[in-house]
Write a structure and sequence with these properties.
By secondary structure, this protein is mainly alpha-helical. It is about 70% helix and about 0% strand. It folds into 2 domains: about 40 residues, no CATH class; about 425 residues, MFS general substrate transporter like domains (Growth Hormone, Chain: A), CATH 1.20.1250.20. It contains 18 helices and 3 strands.
Length: about 500
Amino acid sequence: MAATDEKVHVDHVGVVASSDDAEARSDKNTSVAVGDFGFSPDEQRKIIRRIDRRLVVTVGAMYCVSLMDRTNLGAANIAGMGKELKLIGNRYSVITLVFFVTYICFQPPSTVIIRRIGPRFHLSVITVLWGSVMIGMGFVKSWDQMAALRVILGIMEAGFFPSCVYLLSTWYTRYEVGKRYSMFYLVGCLASAFSGILAYGLMQMNGLADLTGWRWIFIIEGVLTCLLGVAGYWLLVDFPDSKRKSWSFLGERERAWVCARVEADRGDAKVLPFNLKRFLSAGSDWKIWVYALIFFNSTTITYALAYFLPIILTQRMGFDVGAAQCLVAPPYAFAGFVMFGLAWYSDKYRHRGAVIVINMLLCIIGLPIMGFAESAAARYFGVFLVTAGANSNIPAAMSYQANNIRGQWKRAFCSATLVGFGGIGGIAGSLVFRSQDAPLYRPGLYACLACASLNIILVAILTLNFKRLNAQADRGERELEDSDEDYQPGFRYTC
């Protein structure tokens, strides 16, 4: 390790940069000592890469199975589940949406529980539990049994996503989280890309052990989920400030450096004891509900695609079942490239709202093509644009809210609220493409267009407000994101 102490700089928006950072602006920066850590810039980058490999890859892999397990109904439905369970009328929509009722209700306590018992135990246990529920879905005899298991699945999965969002935000500075959220969600996006191909392969087990092919989709994916949940107990990491003994991949001094850089960036690395009033008081900030509404609009589109794209490919575009299962993959793979490219741009140039607008414009362009173009090839091109825009907006919205809040318990409340509204978006996404609207599904297309347009309006409102508040702070008229927790005088909102 380098022998000399390192100085880091905190600029006017609170971002941490090493002393040799070419982008550091000395006229706006003040030098802050971050202890006697003695890490060279190269050693710092290696520490961050180790955190990426251990944390982002692990939670990304677990989210991969989470996303597959909650959205594989579309593949199972066209593989024979619809006929065998007699999913007539609105039964399919009921099965998809009941998951989100419990998924929403059981989310708020999760970010409190994970602080109490730790991410390793909390996340690994609920992963094994919902994997067991998935296996059970392969043996149901009626549609109401499937609906009941979907309710239980919502309870088990409720704590996973908000806990992961919160955990990632505690490890990285504000202008590092964009790429990390993107990588985290990108793994899930790739899972969506190949889940159709996997489902098609599992369908070929039709007749094995006297079970139809769609049942093997649930059984095999459930077994994989359980195995990953068990592995997660050893692979997951705790919070950087935790005193629990799970730190074989980082030393004491390295952890202290991580906490110090987060503290210098946004001043909330230290966690005050839980207080219900402090936790709930975050709800008085109207901006938190706007972030949540942006997330709701985004997830409405993503879930609508996840649940109904295989059906639309068969009914609207005329592809057979095998082709529809496989044609789900390319749009999601394309979305992965768009997602990471925009996340890199967002972190590098510190633009959050603009990325959301770009994503929503892709949806606004793609939805009419998908719904009204004459040829199947053109409609399929529209699917690429909508899938890329909607899915890229999930990590973009998470980064947007993560950059513009301070305080650990406010962050915990915001994570739960954001993902809770995402669950409500899941209910909406389950309903927008109704069976009676087949094969054109125009009301669903109009609903998705409205969600994308509303997001652009909400970002415009927030941007104007952020610029006004930042200008007031620059003039010394107010402090931003002040609370009863420690605050950082240099904090500014990110537009």
